[in-house]
């Protein structure tokens, strides 16, 4: 139980979810492990993946109304605006936090975080989970040099300079911030992560092989079905390896189109399941044979990514294949947990794994699980977050302490 004198952090995260739901549970898991801190997460009531409203039954969450949308048009921008405005109003009510912790991907949530911290005269920590607006440029939703791009880039740099600390999810981004003139002392790496103990197979849940028709190895992809996820490459791989089953779990803007392609091209070894809560997914993920981490071949991903789904597969003891260069490639190679290939070589990487025997696959999976426990667990990363918050408050207290007058100093001597 949190002590009544604990420090208080308010998290502004548009897409946050509790551990009982599917999706972005990063903050619910990390902040619940802190010592001497209590937290509240301000999240939207509209789910980006399903495009449905949902309610959270969790005392550590406050949901605010965000307008609905169905596509990447002006209505999605209104969704960002309505969330950010109502998150700001929420942050200005109630007890004053010691820290306002605001997270991207979109940049308007951190604006609301900075403004609330400024008004309430408290510390502001900015978490960057997506290099925004660079990511929407590289996924071709924004043109470089356009007025909107120039305004968003200026706002991005303005926020970086005003944050007390900046949390990044991949250490590879340090050079990006250095190129913008941000001092490295302000940056702290708190990777996405997974807790292996949470991913033990649960005997009370139906395994994945009982939830879909399966032949050969069962290869699972669990995550968003969006343009950035490169799932056409996964379908290409399934076409090239018809003797094994590919299961896609989740939702997103591309799911209907992907299902239409599977039907149109008669790709009969691909299955789809609806999103699951994080707790249910963690309990069944280990019943698959191989985990697939795939991303579109976009320049922004070459700067670095910190993929939740890759860490989830490894925590569940699955051997993995990734087609993403940078940190995912390095983690898979360093851990010895599977195969890392170039973006366009997903099928060849999968072929290497499905040809292994059960014992070899088990050995790869255990290497990955051990690596996550030692290097990327929620416990390890929450300790890093703890240090960020403790240091931020300590520095701010020193900076705001009154300076003794000269006469008082002389009298003390």
Characterise this structure:
The chain is α/β, with parallel strands linked by helices. The chain is 41% helix and 15% strand. The chain is built from 16 helices and 13 strands. It has helices at residues 26-31, 74-91, 108-120, 134-138, 147-162, 174-179, 231-240, 255-264, 278-284, 299-302, 308-315, 327-335, 346-354, 358-376, 378-400, 406-412; strands at residues 7-12, 37-44, 61-64, 99-103, 123-128, 165-168, 187-189, 218-222, 245-249, 270-273, 290-293, 320-322, 338-340. A 7-stranded parallel beta sheet has the order 3-2-1-4-5-6-7, sandwiched between helices. The protein has a 6-stranded parallel beta sheet with strand order 10-9-8-11-12-13, sandwiched between helices. Strand 9 (245-249), helix 8 and strand 10 (270-273) form a beta-alpha-beta unit. The longest helix has 23 residues, at 378-400. The termini are far apart. The model has no long low-confidence stretch (mean pLDDT 91).
Distance from N terminus to C terminus (CA atoms, Å) equals 45 Å
Structural class label: alpha/beta
Strand composition percent = 5-15%
Q: Sketch the major β-sheet.
A: 7 strands, parallel
Q: In one word, what is the shape?
A: globular
Q: Taking Cα atoms only, what radius of gyration do you get, to the nearest Å?
A: 22 Å
């Amino acid at each position: 139980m949190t002590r009544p004198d604990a420090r208080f952090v308010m998290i502004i995260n548009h897409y946050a979810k509790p551990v009982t739901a599917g999706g972005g549970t990063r903050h619910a898991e990390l902040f619940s492990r802190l010592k001497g801190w209590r937290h509240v997460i301000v999240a939207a009531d509209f789910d980006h993946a399903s495009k449905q409203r949902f309610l959270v039954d969790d005392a550590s969450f406050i949901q605010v109304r965000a307008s609905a949308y169905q596509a990447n048009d002006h209505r999605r921008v209104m969704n960002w605006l309505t969330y950010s405005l109502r998150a700001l109003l929420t942050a200005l009510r109630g007890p004053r936090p010691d820290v306002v912790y605001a997270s991207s991907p979109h940049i308007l949530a951190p604006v609301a975080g900075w403004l609330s911290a400024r008004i309430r005269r408290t510390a502001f920590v900015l978490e960057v989970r997506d290099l925004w607006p660079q990511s929407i440029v590289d996924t071709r939703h924004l043109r470089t040099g356009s007025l909107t791009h120039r305004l968003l880039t200026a706002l991005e740099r303005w926020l970086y300079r005003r944050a007390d600390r900046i949390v990044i999810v991949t250490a590879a981004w340090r050079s990006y911030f250095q190129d913008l003139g941000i001092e490295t002392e302000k940056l702290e790496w708190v990777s996405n992560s997974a807790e292996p103990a949470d991913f033990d197979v649960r005997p009370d849940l139906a395994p994945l092989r009982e939830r879909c028709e399966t032949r050969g190895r069962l290869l699972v992809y669990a995550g968003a079905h969006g343009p950035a996820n490169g799932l056409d490459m996964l379908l290409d791989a399934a076409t090239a390896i018809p003797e094994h089953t590919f299961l896609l779990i989740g939702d997103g803007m591309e799911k209907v189109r992907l299902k239409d392609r599977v039907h149109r091209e008669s790709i009969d070894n691909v299955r789809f399941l609806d999103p699951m809560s994080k707790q249910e997914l963690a309990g069944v993920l280990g019943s698959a044979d191989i985990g697939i981490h795939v991303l579109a071949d976009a320049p922004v991903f070459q700067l670095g990514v910190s993929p939740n789904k890759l860490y989830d597969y490894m925590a569940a003891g699955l051997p993995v294949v990734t087609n993403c260069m940078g940190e995912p490639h390095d983690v898979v190679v360093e851990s010895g947990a599977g195969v890392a290939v170039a973006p366009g070589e997903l099928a060849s990487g999968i072929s290497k794994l499905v040809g292994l025997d059960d014992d070899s696959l088990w050995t790869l999976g255990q290497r990955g699980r051990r690596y996550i426990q030692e290097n990327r667990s929620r416990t390890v990363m929450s300790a890093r977050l703890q240090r960020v918050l403790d240091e931020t408050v300590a520095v701010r207290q020193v900076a705001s302490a009154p300076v003794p007058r000269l006469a008082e100093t002389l009298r003390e001597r």
